[in-house]
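Hi, here's the filled form for the chain we discussed.

Project: internal
Contact: R.S.
Residues: 316
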Amino acid sequence: RRRVYFEPDDTASEELWDKRCCTGAKLVAAMLGSDEEAGKMYQDQRTPPSLASRWQGDLKQELETWGWRNADADEEFCADFDEYWHTVDSMEALGLNRRPKSEGGDNICYRVEHGDTQKKDDKDNRVPIYKQTYKVGDKEYTATGAHFQGAVNPVGGVIFGQYLLSAPHAAEEYWYRKPKVDELPELRAMSDVMWGWWNRDNPNIRNIRYFWMQQIANEDTLQLIASALKNAKKELRGWPGTTFDLNSKEGQALLGSPNGAGFGYFLAQHKAQLGNKWISKVTVFIGNDNVADSVSIANADLLFHVEDAPEKEPED
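And the returned structure, exactly as it came back:
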């Protein structure tokens, strides 16, 4: 897979911009509203309507059932925020610990894979993803090759998204065709997988303060970032970067982006556990600014700021 970098002139098409603004604006309304109001917005069929996710708790068993395996998330780079991610300035400014838990720090690494890209048979031949299967009930499914890797800092209240390949995209890549929805694992959304991580080794799940997407390599998201910065007459810079309010079109487009929407769902689908929280602003900056001597190898990071949703004014 080729690595995609940020290009300031590679902006979003009008169609992409409008679509993602719309996604973001709807998520803002869902985060700010009650669970029933959010359910109505998304035409939920429950009585009363609800946006609550069916996936709750640490999801260890459920992930295993749906073909996900825990892979070794190498702490040497997953939670090495100094030497690997080079996010010293931003993390110091935010007062966040930069060490892995194994070294007495606050950061816990997670990685799940749907199938095993390294799997070998008895004769030491590689078993391709499309030949790896699992059963749920009486139905057989095929592995997709999807993976989610990130880190969780329960003390500082951060979830980091690092290497992410969703099941629909992975299946298309490994099966050489577009998958049908009923061929995919029912437990597949990034927001649900991360909810499982957030519910482990965490005495206070309401302490969610930031969602941090590192080294973004999604082409649509990078184009949306380029458009947002262009509209604001700003350039991609190191910390403190550029912050967009979520009442702005730019903020809504970034929340609605492929690298943001999952975090909106994370909050909107877990109101019972988290209380009413919303993403109030998003900061765009070069995560590796102290090593990126030119914007050509800069990694665009997105930091979504979480706050309690403002109390609704009582209606007369």
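Let me know if anything looks off before we file it.
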